[in-house]
Write a structure and sequence with these properties.
With 64 residues, the chain is mainly alpha-helical. It is built from one helix and no strands. The longest helix is centred in the middle third of the chain and has 47 residues, at 7-53.
């Protein structure tokens, strides 16, 4: 009768657990990256809007 927890079976189980862990970590990092890029984009656009409001109107920069 073969033992259930042979070295080969333990290695296979550990390998599958590592694959599952990395797959879940990748999904979480994608979610975090989306949130971070949305925050960064919003912050950059807000900073740009605040900066352009302090300057002269855009019509002053048009070529005549």
């Amino acid at each position: 009768m073969k033992p259930i927890l042979s070295e080969k079976n333990i290695v296979v189980v550990l390998f599958v657990m590592v694959l599952v862990t990395f797959a879940l970590a990748q999904e979480d990092s994608k979610k975090m990256e989306k949130g971070f890029s949305a925050i960064t984009t919003h912050s950059a656009s807000q900073l740009f809007a605040d900066h352009t409001n302090d300057k002269t109107p855009e019509s002053d920069f048009q070529i005549k």
